[in-house]
Amino acid sequence: MKTKALILSFIFASVGMTGVAHSANFDLKHENQNIQLKQVPKKIAVYDLSTLDTLNALNIQAEIVPVTNYTGHLAHYNQARFIKAGSLFEPDLTQLKQLKPDLIFVGGRSAKTLTSLQPIAATINFSPNTQQYMQDLKIRSLNLAQAFNRVDLAKSKLKALDQLQQQVKQQTQNQSAVMLFAVGDEYMPHAANDRFGFVYELTGFKSVLALTDTSTSKTRPEAGSKEALALKQQNEVRLKDALQQNPDYLIVLDRGAVNKQNYATKQGIKEHPLLGQSEAVKQNRVIFVDADVWYLTGAGLDNTTFMLKEISAALPK
């Protein structure tokens, strides 16, 4: 979720005794935020995995990262040489004050900590907007590339990504799907405007679900509450309605497999009273996506390439 956009301007050590400002050697713009530094930042802290993935894709290395389980393109960040300071949700302010980073990235889970980090170092919010997935990914990638002098590399990777997406869209032509976010034995259908509904834009699959009413609160209700029970019943109705459309494919993101890679849903979906009777399950047209890639890392440059390759590999050529 986006925090309220702020105009940020940091010019470190750029004003001499005469009060005359020198031009910045590093200028990072994103939305209506602007970070200006006298030198290209070397000590970078990143608290958004999609941003970390994009920086990594552009050969820009972070030095400070949150404590989490890094996989795939980011697996090297498990090494002790990278400083761990806080979590994906809460950066360790005390530790960061001691470490004195040149630049801090927040986004997504950590976006709300922006203002608390600004007194420590130049801080910018790079939260993805997955409602305009590809356009937003290109903007974020090129903004980073421009600031860090990686434009040619970014354009090359984005061109390859476009080509891969077109290949996948050829595979999904005239095919429908339902994105299911599984938590335990509950399977929640995601429409195009839901959290993981970007899969339809990304892959070209046609959604069989009507758009979700966004006028209601998206705050997760307390477990066991009346609101939680009502939401569960609503999800069951939506699931039944979706399956009546006989989608060609089911795409399953198993929350329980995050950091574990143990996909209980591979058996659970067969035993589910509704899903187990669906043609997609009977015909083995179920795509179980990598939970860490889709749930934790999300809309990064290399990570999106992995997502598309994963979907492509599960489809007929």
From TrEMBL:
GO biological process, one term: iron coordination entity transport
Location in or out of the cell: Cell envelope
Pfam short name (any one): Peripla_BP_2
Keywords annotated in UniProt: Ion transport, Iron, Iron transport, Signal, Transport
PROSITE patterns on file: FE_B12_PBP (PS50983)
Domain Fe/B12 periplasmic-binding: 43-317
Keyword match Signal: yes
Top-level taxonomic group: Bacteria
Signal peptide positions (record): 1-23
Family: Belongs to the bacterial solute-binding protein 8 family.
Name of the featured protein: Putative ABC transporter solute-binding protein YclQ
Gene symbol of the encoding locus: yclQ
